[in-house]
């Protein structure tokens, strides 16, 4: 096989890269990424030449032998977005082929990088493919993407407030409550505006509630601001914070969640919770004696009823927690083995144990375990909960869980498969108050619920309730990447970074972005692009 000039130039470039592989600078790494993109085009060209010249497959494959494995591995390790790994793997099947007959030097370079990332996060991917998976690289890529989706959120919605992370990782907020983060002299902001005190931080995730917000930066540090009642800000007191303040006791955090209390998961999979713990209704009926069920996962002083600094949920110390959801006085957690736990106030049936009993400590939901499925994400509202399987199936229980029934006489205290979504593979799930949302692997969005005349569900009508999941047709032309559900409004980010909003109490319009504070279908915010690639 004659060597043509383009291949000769590549050999020279590879030789230079191999000599410098141990001392690559940031600039050289960038050049390596550019080279990888050029290689993709080259491999397609080489395949066309091979077909034209009727080369045997084995001969064409030898073109890849010029790639030093160390150089390629270094390039792979610098690709922050795992979708770039998928694109590079697509250049040649040998980069990810599972066949033992493939050249050993090229076996599993992409797979090895995905396994390295999983190991760095202490995620157990196992040694054998799970049922239904055809090959390691697609399976590991999906695991990586699921993990990214769990940890990163570019949108947050409360009642009268919204927050966003733009493409540069900067924090923006808008609305008319305490959780704006712009200082005590600013109580209303129209279009989203950058938070001055956070301009030097690269934000990767945000979460919002009625009166407070949390933000997670790229260094794993957590910031909180808003009303500090019940110690929900995590600073050891109940003082308000008009600007974001770092929670000193939290280090190397990977995900955050805000509700009527707060939660965080660190890089070791340890769950921390803080804020309001006791249920006033339970206290009124049972008094303040004995073990009062809290939604924090551990017992606290019943006379105070609050935890003003992050406390570790020791009952889950043997588990690596990968997801958490905060309902009203109950909590859900899922570990990396796919087991779901619940704890807190139980009379509304949202704990999923088939009864109305409360739980002080995390208890595994046996009804989910008996399905034989591995669960990867959870969501919780006022009195309902959702759990998502690795295969994209959705289970729900409690009021507004998507089974076509609502009201106290139709509570489903035991998790059941949401049958209206059978055959639709779900990748993301959200819940807030009396509403829920599911995003499919193809980027479609389904919503359902029953509060605020369903105006924030995006279907354009004034229905009193939407009992089963219904696709949001207004967003059929985009691929949805993230959602934030507030009490009366919904925020959506598409894969291109476009930000959409619908509902009431948006807090977006003081300068004509929206003509009304009652937007019944998702409407694009023209001046904003959020971060949807990491």
Question: What does the model show?
Answer:
This protein has helices spanning 5-19, 26-53, 57-61, 69-77, 82-89, 109-120, 136-151, 280-286, 366-369, and strands spanning 155-157, 161-165, 171-175, 189-194, 203-208, 212-217, 222-226, 241-246, 253-258, 261-266, 271-276, 306-312, 321-326, 330-335, 340-344, 359-364, 375-380, 384-389, 394-398, 416-417, 426-432, 435-440, 445-449, 466-471, 480-485, 489-494, 498-504, 518-529. The chain is of the alpha+beta class. The strands form seven sheets. A four-stranded antiparallel beta sheet has the order 1-2-3-4, with no helix packed on it. Strand 9 (253-258) and strand 10 (261-266) form a beta hairpin. The chain starts with a helix and ends in a 5-residue tail after the last strand.
Report the structural category. Answer: alpha+beta
Q: Number of helix segments?
A: 9
Q: Please compute the radius of gyration using only Cα atoms.
A: 25 Å
Mean pLDDT: 80
> What's the shape?
globular
Poorly predicted ranges (pLDDT <50, ≥5 residues)?
Answer: 49-65, 99-106, 281-291, 407-411
- Separation of termini? 41 Å
Helix share, percent: 10-25%
Number of distinct beta strands:
28
Spatial arrangement of strands, main beta sheet: 1-2-3-4
Give the strand content: 25-35%
**Main beta-sheet annotation:** 4 strands, antiparallel
Short descriptors:
534 residues; alpha+beta; four-stranded antiparallel sheet; 9 helices; 28 strands
Short structural summary:
By secondary structure, the protein is of the alpha+beta class. Among the domains are: about 5-95 and about 105-125 and about 135-145; about 160-260, no CATH class. It has helices at about 5-20, 25-55, 55-60, 70-75, 80-90, 110-120, 135-150, 280-285, 365-370; strands at about 155, 160-165, 170-175, 190-195, 205-210, 210-215, 220-225, 240-245, 255-260, 260-265, 270-275, 305-310, 320-325, 330-335, 340-345, 360-365, 375-380, 385-390, 395-400, 415, 425-430, 435-440, 445-450, 465-470, 480-485, 490-495, 500-505, 520-530.
């Amino acid at each position: 096989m004659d060597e043509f000039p383009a291949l000769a130039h590549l050999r020279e470039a590879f030789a230079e890269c191999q000599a410098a592989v141990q001392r690559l600078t940031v600039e050289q790494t960038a050049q390596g990424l550019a080279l990888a993109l050029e290689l993709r085009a080259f491999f397609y060209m080489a395949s066309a030449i091979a077909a034209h010249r009727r080369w045997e497959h084995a001969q064409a494959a030898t073109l890849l032998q010029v790639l030093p494995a160390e150089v390629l591995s270094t390039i792979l390790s610098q690709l922050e977005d795992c979708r770039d790994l998928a694109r590079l793997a697509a250049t040649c099947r040998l980069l990810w082929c599972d066949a033992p007959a493939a050249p050993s030097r090229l076996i599993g370079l992409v797979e090895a990088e995905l396994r390295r990332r999983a190991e760095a996060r202490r995620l157990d991917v196992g040694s054998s493919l799970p049922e239904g998976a055809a090959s390691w690289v697609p399976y590991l890529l999906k695991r990586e993407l699921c993990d990214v989706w769990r940890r990163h959120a570019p949108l947050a919605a409360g009642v009268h407030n919204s927050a966003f992370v733009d493409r540069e990782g900067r924090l923006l907020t808008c609305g008319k409550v305490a959780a704006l983060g712009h200082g005590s002299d600013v109580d209303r902001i129209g279009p989203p505006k950058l938070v001055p005190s956070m301009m030097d931080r690269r934000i990767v995730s945000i979460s919002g509630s009625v009166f407070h917000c949390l933000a997670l930066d790229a260094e794993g540090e957590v910031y909180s601001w808003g009303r500090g009642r019940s110690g929900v800000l995590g600073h050891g007191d109940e003082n308000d914070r008009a600007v974001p303040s770092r929670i000193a006791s939290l280090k190397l955090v990977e995900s955050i969640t805000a509700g009527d209390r707060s939660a965080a998961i660190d890089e070791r999979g340890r769950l921390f919770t803080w804020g309001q713990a006791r249920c006033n209704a339970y206290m009124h009926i049972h008094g303040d004696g004995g073990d009062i069920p809290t939604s924090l996962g551990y017992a606290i002083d019943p006379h105070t009823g609050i935890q003003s600094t992050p406390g570790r949920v020791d009952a889950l110390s043997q588990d690596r927690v990968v997801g958490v959801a905060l309902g009203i006085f109950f909590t859900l957690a899922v570990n990396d083995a796919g087991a779901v736990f619940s704890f807190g106030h139980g009379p509304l049936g949202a704990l999923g144990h088939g009864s109305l009993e409360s739980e002080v400590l995390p208890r595994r939901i046996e009804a989910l375990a008996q399905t034989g499925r591995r669960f990867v994400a959870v969501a919780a509202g006022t009195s309902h909960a959702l759990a998502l399987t690795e295969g994209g199936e959705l289970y729900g229980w409690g009021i507004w869980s998507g089974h076509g029934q609502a009201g106290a006489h139709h509570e489903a205290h035991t998790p059941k498969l949401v049958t209206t979504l059978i055959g639709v593979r779900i990748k993301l799930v959200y819940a807030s108050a009396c509403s829920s949302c599911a995003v499919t692997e193809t980027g479609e969005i389904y919503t359902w619920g029953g509060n605020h005349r369903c105006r924030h569900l995006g279907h354009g009508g004034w229905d009193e309730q939407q009992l089963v999941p219904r696709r949001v047709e207004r967003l059929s032309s985009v691929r949805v990447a993230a959602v934030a559900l507030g009490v009366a409004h919904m925020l959506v980010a598409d894969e291109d970074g476009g930000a959409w909003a619908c509902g009431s109490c948006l807090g977006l319009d003081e300068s004509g972005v929206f003509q009304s504070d009652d937007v019944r279908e998702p409407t694009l915010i023209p001046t904003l692009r959020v971060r949807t690639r990491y």
